[in-house]
Amino acid sequence: MSTLIIEAFYGGSHKQLVDLLQEEIEDCVLFTLPAKKWHWRARTAALYFMENVPASDDYRILFASSVLNLTELVALRPDLGKLKKVLYFHENQLTYPVQKCQERDFQYGYNQILSCLVADVVVFNSAYNMESFLTSIGKFMKLIPDHRPKHLEKLIRPKCQVLYFPMKFPDVSRFMPEHKLPHIEKTPGAEGNGSTDLFMDLPFQEKNGGTTGLINVTNPDHGPGHSELRSAHSSSWPETLHNLPTTLEKLEKPASSTSTNLSQAEDSQYAAFNLSSVSGRSGCQEKPLHIVWPHRWEHDKDPESFFKVLLKMKEMELNFHVSVLGETFTDVPDIFSEAKKALGSSILHWGYLPNRDEYFQVLCMADVVISTAKHEFFGVAMIEAVYCGCYPLCPKALVYPEIFPAEYLYSTPEQLFKRLQNFCKRPDIVRKHLYKGEMSQFSWAALRGKFRSLLTTEPREDL
Q1: What is the pLDDT of residues 331-372, one digit of tens each?
Q2: What's the CATH number for 2-166+446-454?
Q3: DSSP of 219-234
Q4: Comparing C-alpha atoms, which of 278, 353, 281, 282 is closest to residue 320?
Q5: Is the CATH number 3.40.1740.10 carried by domain 175-203+239-439?
Q6: Are 323 and 363 in contact (CB under 8 A)?
């Protein structure tokens, strides 16, 4: 009995998930395509896997991400169509932002709808991802000029469930600066020791239980899973954006003008990141606020808004450092080169860090992690940064109200600027802050059983 895992875009969180499943689930067989040319993977991957996945009587389950056109694959390979087919959505193309409306290719979203219809189980990495997809099907199908199919949401919804992306982290206490050490309880052997306590002892964590991380939707009209989803995305979220401690809201005294800014360097010097100037375990309270932005360098992460706020801070001579991480692809928005020149000596690191230890080291040394995304269905990078003790600031939209308490959300760029301005004046307040959210629901320790259940099935006589 084995699970066949097919990943048409083997990179980023897609790679992280299937590697974890192959490592932790017995009898998994993995077939992949490199994480390049996403659009062509969505168009043609089924034909590639038709030719390259060998037939086997041992397969019982097919697990694939929604990049794959599952409908095409099972039509081309009827033997695979007989398996229990599990489709996992890291994102959905019905609500994925495009720079211009006319740039949206109908086929990608249409393929995902068809894949849902042939799948046995459809899994989303967040309730926001699931609801935004299901409730957009009707509007999306109206793009067809005539003879439109009906009731597709009702056909698909009973198959759907939320299973959060499973997070598994190494022990990062060795990277923590002194001011974070009192808030972290070291978890020995965190890199896959199977301990159920892996995420119960995270830095800045309150141990007050949490949700199961799995929401079954078997009836669109009633049931606890569905009602919880609705309430999670209700417009009645409390407006507590400014309910910070008084010490943060009434800051008047400017911070010291002394800093440990790095001098301007060439690209190669930025790439060879050196923490020697910031990783000392003494004097952390006097150092400038360290802001990190760990996202892909693409338009849907809205780097323009992020850099606009930082450049305004720079103009006001606020004291801060910034590390801009994340992967780059073929087309990098122009704002990155412009911002790099303008931010100058405020930059601590600039560029992607493929080495995970170096990446986590930067996160551990940072104070605040920022998202300005126009698209986010889960947000692995933000959760990793919070795990490393960063204070998160996220838009009050997308998946973020589902993941983070309202205190960490902002509604406008002006509110983001105000928060960062206050933090720059008193970075010590940020460094003493205890994160108030619940993170254990996203851990592999909490989700392991649900993934194992998902990837098991009873033998069928017709296989």
Answers
A1: 899 999 999 999 999 999 999 998 999 999 999 999 999 999
A2: 3.40.50.2000
A3: -SSSSHHHHHHHHHT-
A4: 278
A5: no
A6: no
